[in-house]
Write a structure and sequence with these properties.
- The complex is a heterodimer.
- By secondary structure, chain A is an alpha/beta fold.
- Chain A has helices at 2-8, 12-38, 51-67, 81-91, 108-114, 120-127, 136-140, 164-169, 181-194, 208-217, 224-228, 241-256, 266-277, 291-298, 333-346, 349-359, 372-380, 386-392, 409-423, 428-449; strands spanning 41-47, 71-77, 100-104, 117-118, 143-144, 147-148, 151-156, 158-163, 200-204, 281-287, 302-305, 321-328.
- Chain A folds into 2 domains: 39-156 and 321-380, Periplasmic binding protein-like II (D-Maltodextrin-Binding Protein, domain 2, 3-Layer(aba) Sandwich), CATH 3.40.190.10; 158-318 and 407-449, Periplasmic binding protein-like II (D-Maltodextrin-Binding Protein, domain 2), CATH 3.40.190.
- The longest helix of chain A has 27 residues, at 12-38.
- Chain A is globular, with a radius of gyration of 25 Å.
- By secondary structure, chain B is mainly alpha-helical.
- Chain B is built from 15 helices and 2 strands.
- Chain B has helices at residues 6-16, 20-30, 35-66, 84-90, 93-124, 131-139, 146-157, 163-170, 182-210, 214-223, 227-238, 240-255, 259-264, 276-286, 290-315; strands spanning 69-71, 77-80.
- In chain B, a hairpin with a 5-residue loop joins strand 1 (69-71) and strand 2.
- The chains are: A alpha/beta, B mainly alpha.
- Chain A binds chain B through residues 82-83, 85-86, 89, 110, 113-114, 200, 206, 260-268, 271, 274-275, 278, 280-281, 406-407, 409-410, 413, 416-417, 420-421, 423-424, 438, 442, 445-446, 448-451, and chain B through 69-75, 78-79, 94, 154, 158-161, 177, 179-182, 263-266, 268-271, 282, 285-289, 291.
- Chain B: Residues 99-311 form the ABC transmembrane type-1 domain.
- Chain B: The chain crosses the membrane at residues 39-61, 103-124, 136-156, 184-209, 230-255, 298-316.
- Chain B: It comes from Lactiplantibacillus garii.
- Chain B: InterPro entries: ABC_transporter_permease, MetI-like, MetI-like_sf.
């Protein structure tokens, strides 16, 4: 050991000199940077987009910073949706908090109640910003009492995918674009029968979002006070006839043997996609954001329909999922203005068109589909347009605009448990009732802790 | 029974001889604290007390505090509920199922890891040509991270295109929903976990086997003891401290299993693999329910304290020699 030290001994003065030099250079560089930035107002933007989304956001930030010289937007990737809520809660009011941040659909109520944000409506009214250019369904879930809370951004809906090649191979008529439960059951059963069980008919991930949308499409609320839109929800209802019917539909396919269970979570969606792409599975339901990825492999053999509806009922439409952009109210007005300017920039028709083309999220700007980029894309591959059309044709109401409750994540957990139980053959009503009871308890103590309800 | 071997007897005797411990004790008696020394004691202990206080004791007490409240959407304690959280938790069927699942998992992983590790080590300890190659292979899982092995096993467990079900189909056996059937999911995660622990366990056992004095086996051979007798009456007793060590380490590590569960099942299906540690994470950082998560943390701490106590009381006695 002493030998080792002695080797360095003659050089320590040099090392110290080098360190000092580095410090001086670093200091200069930092000083210069700070000087250059001080001219512009810095707007820190937190987002949770990975892959193509992140790439695209970086491109928009660059374009925005080039286009004007008043603001300097700095985009920072913050990991998952869940984590960022905690980070906002912990940094609000400090220098570390962002001016603008992206937060997921089901955190809307929590963000609203936090009082940490400036409702976007304030800027809309001030600037007479034309809200009509934004898709009504996307606005509805981020609104309270008709006032827009945050700027809708990356949006998706649930969609149903089928493999046209499989259907062609066995001579099966494809489902209509607005299918009922029995339309899907027919196709799924035929795939199973005609392939002699070699190809599974359908699957559905034990994913609460899918369950919620089946119920929404039937036009039935899951929580009282109109899904929490007209008052604080105090009770949930997971056992409505519509919910039971949706699960009976799945059960029918399980009992027939054409249904394959992939479980829940990221693995389930990866496995079902792998199975679907390799022709081992005919039909599955997932986020519309998957369309691009599936299209890359299947090309014109990819079939997409709207989300299924109960037999003999008109589709009520489903909620827009994804995330929106919130403006923190702990920053000076100038910074908040910068955040507002940048959010407007992100949702203009041109940027929303590139956003949909590059990421697969649905454009929230109605006029995006008239942009040459999307026009060409849809002409070449009409299947990419289906989910966007589903979103555009929906008239928002309280049952298809999400559930306005703080802490929906545990509700999703308990619904997913119920779904897994049902998929494993347990009683539908009992499983859903257990989920309902368990979440009602959570809801009650949440309301108590938050002084609500 | 071990006493029939002279060398073991000798070892026992040397262990019982007055060791260095007594000497240290004698020195401490002669050493008296002076007032000046107290100042130095605080000076030296102070920083570590400070660090422990901030990073260990404060969070512990805070957890205890939070467990007595309801927390709002921002994790702030708002309504004092006393022991209600504990009562809710301990009467919850789901939580009891979690405790049971954790028990099954920990015992399963520990038992199978020890059995398989010992078997592999015993095989690798033989003098066979080319055994060095297998010794390397057996330790290979040490170099594989949790995420990689989880993904690798996920591929094998895939219900439609996974290799396990493909083999089953080929042999005309019924296919299994490895990760979506509640019973099989537990089997699957235990298998993966055992596989991951195996490399390290093998290495430790192999080292222990190599250090058993050869003279013992020579003596046994002379007395005509069968190789099975030799294994149970020489090998096992001689490696018992290693055995204890491996049992404790594997148990602790499987109690802490998080990455594997998160990547493979995320606690599902129907909570079948929702182990206590994973549950705490989910309640706190996914569901945002800090009060419940704090309560679970305290209960888990108590459970682990009890198990550690039992382990040292019971297993330490069984170290034979």
């Amino acid at each position: 050991m002493t030998k080792l030290i002695s080797i360095f001994k003659p050089h320590w003065r040099w090392g110290l000199g080098l360190l000092a030099l580095l410090a001086i250079i670093g200091g200069f560089a930092y000083g210069n940077q700070a000087h250059a930035e001080s001219k512009r107002i810095k707007v820190v933007f937190w987002h949770e987009m990975k892959g193509p989304g992140q790439k695209q956001i970086d491109a928009y930030v660059k374009a925005f910073n080039k286009k004007q010289s008043k603001y300097e937007v700095v985009a920072e990737f913050e990991g998952g949706y869940n984590g960022v809520i905690q980070k906002i809660m912990n940094t609000h009011g400090t220098a570390a908090s962002p001016a603008l941040f992206q937060s997921m659909d089901i955190s809307t109520s929590q963000m609203y109640h936090s009082g940490f944000t400036t409702p976007v409506q304030k800027f809309v009214d001030r600037d007479h910003y034309d809200l009509d250019q934004l898709v009504p369904g996307a606005r509805a879930i981020y609104s309270r009492n008709g006032k827009l809370l945050s700027m809708p951004f990356n949006s998706s809906q649930t969609a149903l995918y089928y493999n046209k090649a499989v259907l062609k191979k066995y001579g099966i008529t494809p489902p209509p674009v607005d299918p009922t439960y029995s339309d899907i059951t027919r196709v799924a059963k035929q795939i199973h029968d005609k392939s002699h069980g070699q190809v599974k008919g359908m699957t559905m991930e034990a994913y609460s979002w899918l369950f919620e949308q089946l119920v929404a499409n039937a036009g039935v609320p899951l929580a009282n006070h109109n899904n929490g839109h007209t008052g604080d929800a105090t009770k949930v209802d997971f056992t409505s006839p519509a919910a039971i019917k949706a699960m009976q539909w799945v059960k029918e396919n399980i009992d027939y043997g054409d249904f394959i269970n992939f479980g829940s979570g990221g693995n389930a969606s990866a496995n079902e996609a792998a199975s679907f792409l390799s022709g081992h599975l005919g039909i599955f339901m997932q986020s519309s954001a998957k369309t691009g990825q599936l299209y890359k492999v299947l090309k014109n053999n990819l079939g997409v329909t709207y989300f299924p509806r109960p037999d003999g009922k008109k589709a009520n439409g489903i909620a827009v999922g994804g995330a929106s952009l919130w403006i923190s109210n702990d920053k000076p007005a100038a910074v908040q203005n910068g955040a507002w300017e940048f959010s407007k920039f992100l949702v203009n028709a041109k940027n929303q068109a590139t956003w949909q083309a590059k990421t697969g999220y649905l454009a929230v700007n109605k006029h995006a589909k008239d942009e040459p980029l999307l026009k060409q894309l849809f002409k070449k591959s009409p299947v990419l347009e289906v989910s966007g059309n589903q979103m555009l044709r929906t008239t928002p109401n309280d049952t298809n605009s999400g559930i306005f409750i703080d802490g929906l994540v545990p509700a999703r957990t308990s619904i997913q448990n119920a779904m897994q139980q049902i998929f494993a053959g347990q009683d539908i009503y009992k499983s859903l009732k257990a989920a309902e009871n368990s979440y009602n308890k959570v809801l009650e103590s949440n309301n108590r802790a938050n002084g609500r309800g | 029974m071990i006493n029939s071997f002279p060398s073991v007897k000798r070892r026992r005797q040397t262990n019982q001889a007055p060791g260095p411990k007594e000497e240290v004790r004698a020195n401490v008696k002669n050493f008296e604290l002076q007032k000046n020394d107290k100042y130095y004691a605080w000076l030296f202990l102070g920083p570590s007390f400070l660090v422990l206080g901030i990073f260990v004791f404060y969070p512990m007490l805070r957890t205890l505090y939070l467990s007595l409240f309801l927390t709002d959407s921002f994790g702030r304690p708002t309504v004092f509920v006393g022991l209600q959280n504990y009562l809710n938790l301990l009467t919850s069927k789901v939580y009891m199922a979690s405790i049971q699942a954790t028990g099954v998992y920990v015992i399963g992983v520990t038992a199978f890891t020890i059995i398989c590790g010992l078997l592999l080590a015993a095989v690798a300890n033989q003098k066979i040509r080319g055994i060095e190659f297998f010794r390397t292979i057996f330790t290979a899982t040490m170099g594989v991270s949790v995420s990689v092995s989880a993904i690798f096993w996920l591929f094998m467990f895939n219900p439609s295109i996974g290799v396990l079900n493909q083999i089953a189909l080929f042999l005309h056996l019924p296919t299994v929903n490895w990760l979506t059937n509640p019973h099989w999911a537990m089997v699957s995660v235990i298998t993966t976990s055992v596989w991951m622990h195996l490399g390290f366990t093998f290495l430790i056992f192999f080292g222990a086997l190599q250090s058993v004095p050869k003279t013992l086996y020579d003596a046994a051979d002379v007395s005509g003891a069968s190789s099975r007798y030799q294994f149970f009456h020489i090998t096992l007793p001689m490696i018992s401290p290693t055995f204890f060590f491996v049992a404790v380490i594997t148990m602790i590590s499987s109690f802490k299993s998080f990455g594997l569960i998160d990547l493979m099942t995320a606690g599902g299906p129907t909570n079948a693999t929702n182990l206590l540690v994973y549950r705490i994470y989910k309640d706190a950082f996914v569901d945002g329910n800090y009060a419940v998560a704090s309560t679970e943390s305290i209960v888990l701490a108590i459970i682990i304290a009890i198990i550690t106590f039992i382990q040292f009381k019971l297993l330490a006695k069984r170290v034979n020699y």
